[in-house]
Backbone:
């Protein structure tokens, strides 16, 4: 029951917002805030339900082979938690910036929340595709929301590539259905190993390409830097922090359920994609002058880290990947919010223009420093810990090349984050100083964003410090164990 | 030069052909069954008893897999919301003049029949081919026709955007409302007969529990949504001076 | 035989759609390519429900009804595809206001 | 997560070196950093570095070891960037690479043995440790960061870098390769000679000292390769003291006269003897005067190669020793030449007798008798320090040094920086890195057609892989 509410509550909120708008012409912040709170708590309730007693919800009361099921095990619960934290932060930032103004923005936002929860909970392949479409359409629109030409161009490119990706997912789903006649993922996990090899190749390639496009992994990443850098601050943070993770959940779920038992090179392919993403993302980030674009390419690279963890096809790898996904959510959301705010205050996104910020925004810059240290992987931070776990599991999986790639990526990322930080700290140019000596324009108070960013930075420190504590280890290793335990998933869904 | 260089086209061609061949290999390896298997067999055998509907496709869409349909109509909802967001910042300046008197009268005669046809398709969705999507689309064509024949100002006066928004949201809420009724009754979200909706007399309009209601909800949503999409895009073109696509 | 032809033609349409997207510079043709690909995938899904000598899956059945499940999927996917394409067209119209063109080679402000 | 007691076994000389170094640099830093802000910053960073050094020495597993290494790296990086951000960047990136390689190796060890405890490394993972600690200990070709960082850092930071930071590489090598390991002997001998050779040319005192550090590291590496790990550890202690003193002495000169260029400093030794005294004394210790620990240790390294060694390796080491006296004379003797102009102290603040005295006193730790005295009881040394070098060999070394000095002064036209190093291949303005950077610029052309093309090509590839 709580599972379906996690999807229905935000959906209802999205359907009600136009009616409220028609009735009142304005939306109050408290109304949106209340709806957001309701949606987030519904998602959290589902997450806790799934965490403490893995649950299955039969929609319409139909058995798993007839209808659609929602499943919450440890993996989905963990990602639900991640998504809830991320969306709550993004919603708070949007409320602070836009107030109750753009009702369509909030409608789409709530639709996005509903679809994310849907992707995380569904146990049906076609249903996954449907939710993926809501998710993608909402994401295209949020990217384009600012209506600048950059945003529109990014939105269009995202749309075309995303639709092609979706078509490949649909093709993979169709092939799966043709070969087996079922769409329930648990039942498919049992049936897929027995279908012909050529078909399995086609299915895995189509699904993998489609999901890789949606995730933004390197060879098909083109939309990601455009979209993440052109969107509004809160949307960028949401895109990089949460949406990417939801896609990664889909990759994990599909690959572990379908292809752990079938053999083949799916996980090798995932590892290769991950390694290319790490190198390509970092190298591209190195040559960016636009700070948001730099962060976007850094996201490509971080996706690569997570995919390397997924590609290990082991419980340890999955646990490391989830840990890194959590860390990256915290770090990248904080970085994007900080970069967006600083760029707005300076009215430029060029790194060389963002000088002298240490004096005017000390708290922002110090949070940025902590977060970027974490994302580079400086030892006591969480980024180091999760990278270490990924390296460990990748070495355990028998190939050392991804681990070396991660090590190289750390060095490159240190180089470009240092460039940004040194720009922040270096004193302002004479000329621009005289320009900004003009009466400071009305600086909006950004209390909520600042609080969010600093708390994310603190969380990074805490997660890093407690990475070896029994609670954290148990949390993540139990996620890893459930992720690769196909038998338990099948048993949970079918009741056998 | 509308295309890319020759070598690029050649490479693209080679890639397309090789992809096609690889996919064909995958498809050819599947042996097409001579009769229906799996879940479909169950649907075919048990639809009338379990859902009360005669049209098995409608039963799947609105009962067995109604959640997909909710998602799908949400996709339209999202797209409509987005398109009207993209075009929200401009207002009507002028209206197209519409067509001649004969055309106006003629359409005036035809429209009621079209509406009747659409309603029949929607309401009998659980009995015969058709349903909310198909009917809703026909409803949307009516507004398009009216816009073409009477000019867009007629449309904007009689079906202003807020009415369409209202209809769309109402359809969506109706759909989720049915689902929540099922939830309250304890049978589960979007459950039909087991939630206490009356099965009715098989073959009559009032049968199959909540399926006709869901059909109506979807028709509202689709009709209003498609009409809004058309309307939003038309608005922009009317400003004049802009004809995308003419350049090539 | 029928079925093989259905699949083959669907795959050919799919590849034509991809080829169109890859080689045409006009954005509208890109959208046409998307629509072609989508139609091809739907064709594959519908074909997979084919039963030799099948009848419509509407009770009471007169003979050997075809698989209704692909029909339901197709209906769902059609609507989703239509929304995608409508959205793409809307984006193109908006983008045309800025670039005054629909030529892909000129719509590349974001790169590097 | 085990912490071992730091003052046991092989960590002892390193701990002692760290103790004396941090003490002396703290004192020296108080004098060196005049202004308030820099001084405060230096104090904090020094504290962080000291804490992390304690961590490095007491960590019982590779992960903790690397973790503390990186904290040390970070604090030294901020010290260097107080003066030269670019050199600091090179330093940081190279050290991060090293740490990454060690981590990869450690992960491999863990997957093989199920334990991260510091100890001998199994076969397939040796190469990662070799490369990682190789960067830390500046193996030839991996040394590109060392002259930059040592030469451009503030002097206290240079002292720490040369005295302790590079020694962590030696410590790691000792831990990872406690058994005789032939490749290390080869690397070490080449490195000793290469460093000494490169040190002959620069006119910048700190750059000379940096290459000299590399040469000495070569001696230690040779000792490790030959299996004489305790000699390497003892050498590390002695070298830490000497090189720390030398760098701080160079700092005194720089602070007092505003330059480190030896040709600009000609003749100042006559007027400011107290200021140059630590440098000269240190140079004597480093050159290996009989009665100093260096003398003892260099001979021990050569004899530890054993009877079976090829004649080439001792020969390389001996010539490195000869070049060493050459470059040391090269930076000390000109101080007493007759300069054309009497250079005045710029800052007006002489080193002060106290600082010089402290530095010279520090060197006492590195005298033969004292050194053996403090190290003997805690060494668990199977090898004995062989003090049996012939006095004649020392005279030969000095003679060779004078020849080198004279030859060096004949060669003109060498840039102030010395010979070009491999760093030119790593600059972003030219060379392969630049080409790579330019190539990656084409990776995102902004054309939708190409995006789809790449995606499709990728899909076909995927289907072929799967």
Residues:
């Amino acid at each position: 029951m709580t599972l379906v509410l996690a999807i229905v509550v935000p959906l209802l909120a999205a359907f009600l917002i136009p009616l409220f708008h028609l009735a009142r012409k304005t939306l109050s912040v408290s109304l949106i805030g209340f709806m957001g709170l309701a949606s987030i708590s519904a998602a959290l309730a589902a997450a806790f339900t799934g965490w403490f007693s893995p649950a299955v919800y039969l929609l319409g009361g139909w058995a798993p082979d007839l209808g659609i099921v929602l499943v919450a095990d440890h993996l989905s619960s963990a990602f639900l938690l991640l998504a809830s934290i991320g969306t709550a932060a993004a919603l708070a930032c949007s409320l602070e910036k836009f107030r109750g103004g753009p009702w369509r923005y909030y409608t789409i936002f709530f639709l996005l929340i509903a679809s994310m929860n849907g992707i995380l909970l569904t146990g049906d392949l076609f249903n996954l595709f449907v939710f993926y479409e809501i998710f993608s359409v909402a994401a295209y629109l949020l990217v384009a929301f600012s209506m600048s030409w950059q945003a529109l161009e990014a939105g269009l490119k995202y749309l075309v590539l995303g639709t092609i990706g979706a078509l490949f997912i649909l093709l993979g789903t169709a092939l799966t259905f043709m070969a087996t006649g079922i769409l329930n993922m648990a039942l498919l996990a049992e049936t897929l190993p027995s279908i012909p090899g050529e078909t399995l190749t086609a299915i895995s390639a189509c699904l993998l390409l489609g999901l890789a496009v949606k995730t933004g992994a390197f060879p098909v990443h083109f939309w990601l830097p455009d979209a993440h850098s052109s969107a509004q601050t809160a949307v960028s943070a949401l895109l990089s922090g949460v949406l990417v993770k939801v896609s990664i959940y889909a990759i994990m779920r599909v690959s572990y359920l379908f292809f752990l038992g079938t053999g083949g090179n799916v996980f090798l392919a995932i590892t290769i994609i991950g390694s290319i993403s790490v190198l390509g993302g970092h190298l591209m980030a190195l040559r960016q002058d636009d700070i948001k674009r730099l962060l976007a390419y850094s996201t490509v690279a971080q996706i690569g880290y997570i995919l390397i963890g997924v590609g290990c096809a082991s419980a340890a790898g999955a646990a490391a990947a989830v840990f890194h996904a959590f860390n990256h959510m915290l770090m990248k959301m904080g970085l994007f919010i900080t970069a967006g705010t600083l760029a707005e205050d300076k009215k430029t996104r060029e790194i060389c223009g963002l000088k002298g910020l240490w004096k005017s925004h000390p708290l922002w810059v110090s949070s940025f420093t902590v977060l970027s240290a974490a994302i580079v992987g400086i030892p006591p931070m969480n980024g180091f810990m999760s990278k270490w776990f990924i390296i460990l599991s990748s070495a355990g999986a028998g190939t050392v090349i991804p681990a070396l790639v991660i090590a190289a990526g750390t060095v490159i990322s240190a180089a470009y984050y240092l460039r940004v930080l040194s720009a922040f700290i270096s004193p302002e140019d004479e000329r621009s100083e005289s320009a900004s000596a003009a009466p400071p324009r009305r600086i909006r108070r950004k209390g909520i964003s600042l609080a969010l960013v600093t708390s994310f930075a603190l969380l990074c420190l805490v997660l890093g410090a407690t990475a070896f504590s029994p609670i954290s280890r148990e949390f993540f290793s139990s996620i890893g164990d459930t992720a690769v335990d196909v038998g338990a998933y099948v048993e949970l869904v079918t009741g056998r | 030069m509308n295309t890319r260089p020759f070598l690029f086209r050649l490479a693209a061609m080679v890639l397309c052909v090789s992809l096609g061949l690889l996919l064909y290999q995958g498809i050819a390896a599947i042996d097409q069954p001579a009769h229906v298997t799996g879940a479909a067999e169950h649907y075919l055998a048990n639809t009338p008893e379990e859902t009360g509907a005669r049209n098995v496709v409608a039963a799947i869409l609105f009962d067995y897999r109604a959640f997909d349909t909710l998602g799908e109509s949400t996709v339209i909802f999202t797209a409509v919301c987005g398109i009207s967001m993209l075009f929200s910042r401009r207002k009507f300046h002028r209206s197209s003049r519409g067509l001649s008197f004969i055309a106006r009268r003629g359409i005036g005669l035809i429209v009621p029949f079209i509406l009747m046809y659409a309603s029949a398709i929607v309401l009998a969705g659980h009995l015969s081919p058709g349903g909310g999507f198909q009917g809703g689309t026909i409803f949307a064509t009516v507004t398009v026709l009216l816009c073409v024949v009477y000019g867009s100002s007629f449309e904007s006066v009689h079906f202003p955007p807020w009415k369409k928004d209202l209809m769309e949201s109402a359809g969506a809420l109706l759909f989720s409302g049915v689902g929540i009724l099922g939830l309250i009754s304890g049978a589960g979200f979007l459950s039909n007969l087991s939630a206490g909706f009356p099965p009715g007399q098989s073959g009559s309009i009032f049968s199959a529990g909540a399926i006709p209601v869901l059909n109506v909800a979807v028709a509202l949503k689709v009709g209003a949504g498609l009409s809004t999409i058309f309307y939003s895009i038309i608005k922009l073109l009317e400003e004049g001076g802009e004809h995308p696509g003419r350049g090539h | 035989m029928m079925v093989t032809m259905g699949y083959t033609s669907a795959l050919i349409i799919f590849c034509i759609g991809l080829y169109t997207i890859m080689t045409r510079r006009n954005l509208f043709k890109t959208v046409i390519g998307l629509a072609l690909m989508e139609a091809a995938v739907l064709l594959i899904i519908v074909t997979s429900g084919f039963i030799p000598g099948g009848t419509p899956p509407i009770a009471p059945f007169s003979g050997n009804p075809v698989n209704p499940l692909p029909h339901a999927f197709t209906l769902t996917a059609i609507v989703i595809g239509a929304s995608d394409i409508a959205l793409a067209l809307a984006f193109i119209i908006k983008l045309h206001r800025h670039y005054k063109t629909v030529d892909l080679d000129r719509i590349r402000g974001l790169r590097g | 997560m085990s912490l071992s007691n730091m003052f046991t076994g092989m960590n002892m000389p390193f701990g002692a070196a760290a103790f004396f170094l941090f003490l002396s640099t703290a004192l020296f830093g108080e004098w060196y950093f005049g202004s308030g802000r820099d001084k405060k910053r230096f104090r904090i960073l020094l504290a962080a570095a000291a804490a992390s050094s304690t961590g490095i020495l007491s960590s019982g597993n590779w992960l903790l070891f690397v973790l503390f290494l990186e904290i040390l790296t970070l604090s030294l990086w901020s010290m260097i960037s107080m003066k030269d951000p670019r050199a600091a960047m090179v330093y940081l990136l190279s050290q991060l690479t090293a740490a990454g390689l060690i981590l990869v190796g450690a992960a491999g060890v863990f997957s093989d043995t199920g334990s991260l405890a510091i100890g001998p490394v199994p076969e397939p993972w040796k190469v990662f440790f070799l490369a990682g600690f190789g960067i830390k200990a500046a193996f030839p070709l991996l040394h590109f960061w060392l002259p930059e960082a040592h030469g451009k850092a503030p002097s206290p930071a240079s002292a720490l870098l040369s005295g302790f930071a590079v020694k962590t590489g030696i410590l790691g090598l000792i831990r990872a390769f406690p058994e005789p390991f032939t490749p290390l002997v080869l690397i070490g001998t080449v490195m000793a000679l290469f460093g000494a050779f490169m040190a002959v040319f620069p006119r910048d005192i700190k750059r000379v000292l940096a290459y000299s550090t590399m040469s000495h590291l070569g001696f230690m590496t040779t000792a490790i390769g030959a299996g004489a790990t305790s000699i390497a550890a003892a050498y590390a202690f002695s070298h830490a003291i000497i090189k720390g003193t030398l760098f701080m002495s160079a700092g005194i000169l720089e602070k007092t006269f505003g330059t480190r260029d030896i040709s600009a400093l000609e003749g100042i030794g006559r007027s400011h003897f107290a200021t140059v005294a630590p440098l000269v004394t240190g140079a004597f210790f480093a050159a290996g005067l009989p009665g100093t620990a260096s003398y003892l240790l260099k001979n021990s390294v050569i004899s530890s190669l054993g009877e079976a060694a090829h004649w080439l390796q001792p020969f390389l080491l001996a010539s490195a020793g000869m070049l060493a006296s050459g470059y040391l004379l090269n930076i000390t003797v000109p101080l007493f030449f007759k300069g054309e102009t009497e250079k005045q102290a710029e800052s007006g603040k002489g080193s002060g007798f106290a600082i010089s005295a402290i530095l010279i006193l520090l060197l006492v730790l590195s005298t033969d008798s004292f050194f053996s005295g403090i190290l003997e009881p805690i060494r668990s040394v199977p090898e004995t320090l062989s003090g049996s070098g012939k006095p004649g060999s020392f005279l030969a070394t000095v003679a060779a040094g004078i020849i080198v000095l004279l030859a060096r002064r004949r060669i003109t036209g060498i840039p102030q920086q010395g010979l070009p190093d491999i760093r030119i291949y790593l600059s972003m303005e030219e060379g392969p890195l630049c080409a790579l950077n330019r190539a990656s610029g084409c990776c995102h052309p902004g054309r939708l057609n190409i995006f789809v093309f790449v995606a499709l090509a990728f899909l076909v590839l995927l289907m072929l892989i799967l």
In short: Chain B has one domain: 40-239. The interface with chain D takes residues 4, 8, 11-12, 15-16, 18-19, 22 of chain B (CB under 8 Å). Residues 240-248 of chain B have pLDDT under 50 and may be disordered. The two ends of chain B are 10 Å apart (CA to CA).
